[in-house]
């Protein structure tokens, strides 16, 4: 019998075991992503660094919608060790139909690199996108991509000779912000985290962005730990100049929670647009 206060982190964080139908969900993602790539104007496999996976796909905004003030960046999940941008192209669709150009990122996977290395790659990509396309970013990411979204928001962009507002709007979806619970799980076999590196890679224990807006999203059917991760980020990060809200998507599990991103009239896409509302008010 488990002792009082014991948390089974393997069960809490092993989402594929929690959602046994995940292979069907993944197949649907891959099919819908391929359909979107063949039907939408894009640039594929654009390099942002010199590693095989440091590329992104760029999907142009719809000509039928007003141009937006930011370029959107979607970062896929997979616990920093699996999946590929080619299964997530359609996550750009909802925002493209509202006038956003959208980049969908790839990055080197663990164990070929570590989480700190992936964070460095995402910073290179963010700086590349701002310099190439001339706009600040609206960042949204799923699971590990939610973690990377938070990391970009907390980055000191002065080290890139860029202003702090280049990544001050974000939507981490089902994100991980305290990595210490992963240490004794099977997930860590490829990550090779230890107590020090897990804490260093955790946005909850790092610098808090000075300003910005974010929405931490989690599926209503996700584990207690995933709810805690998003709730803790909102509580820790919300300040006078950094506005955070928690959005629980009723009836959604860890994988289905991102499906509405493909639909322009969905609540998630509407809330992503609202994150940029201050840009219009300040223009």
TrEMBL record:
GO MF assignments: hydrolase activity
Classification via InterPro entries: AB_hydrolase_fold (IPR029058), GDXG_lipolytic_enzyme (IPR050300)
Keyword Hydrolase: yes
Superkingdom of origin organism: Bacteria
Ranges that cross the membrane: none
First and last residue of the signal peptide: none
UniProt KW keywords: Hydrolase
Protein name (database record): Arylformamidase
Native source species: Roseibium hamelinense
Upper taxonomic lineage: Bacteria, Pseudomonadati, Pseudomonadota, Alphaproteobacteria, Hyphomicrobiales
């Amino acid at each position: 019998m488990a002792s009082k206060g014991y948390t089974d982190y393997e069960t809490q964080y092993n989402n594929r075991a929690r959602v046994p139908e995940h292979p069907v969900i993944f197949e649907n993602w891959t099919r819908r992503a391929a359909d979107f790539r063949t039907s939408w104007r894009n640039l594929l496999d654009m390099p942002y660094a010199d590693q095989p996976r440091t590329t992104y796909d760029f999907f142009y905004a719809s000509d039928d919608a007003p141009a937006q003030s930011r370029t959107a960046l979607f970062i896929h999940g997979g616990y920093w060790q699996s999946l590929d941008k080619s299964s997530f192209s359609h996550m750009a669709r909802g925002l493209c139909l509202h006038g956003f150009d959208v980049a969908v990122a790839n990055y080197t996977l663990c164990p070929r690199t570590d989480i700190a290395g992936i964070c460095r790659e995402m910073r290179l990509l963010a700086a590349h996108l701002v310099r190439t396309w001339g706009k600040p970013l609206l960042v949204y990411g799923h699971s590990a991509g939610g973690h990377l979204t938070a990391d970009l928001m907390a980055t000191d962009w002065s080290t890139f000779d860029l202003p702090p507002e280049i990544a001050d709007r974000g939507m981490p979806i089902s994100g991980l912000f305290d990595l210490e619970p992963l240490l004794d799980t099977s997930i860590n076999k490829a990550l090779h985290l230890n107590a020090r590196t897990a804490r260093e890679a955790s946005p909850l224990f790092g610098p808090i962005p000075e300003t910005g807006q974010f929405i931490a999203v989690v599926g209503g059917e996700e584990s207690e730990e995933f709810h805690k991760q998003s709730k803790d980020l909102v509580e820790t990060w919300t300040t006078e100049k950094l506005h955070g809200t928690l959005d629980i998507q009723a009836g959604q599990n860890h994988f289905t929670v991102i499906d509405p991103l493909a639909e322009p009239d969905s609540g998630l896409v509407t809330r992503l647009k609202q994150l940029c509302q201050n840009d219009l008010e300040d223009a």
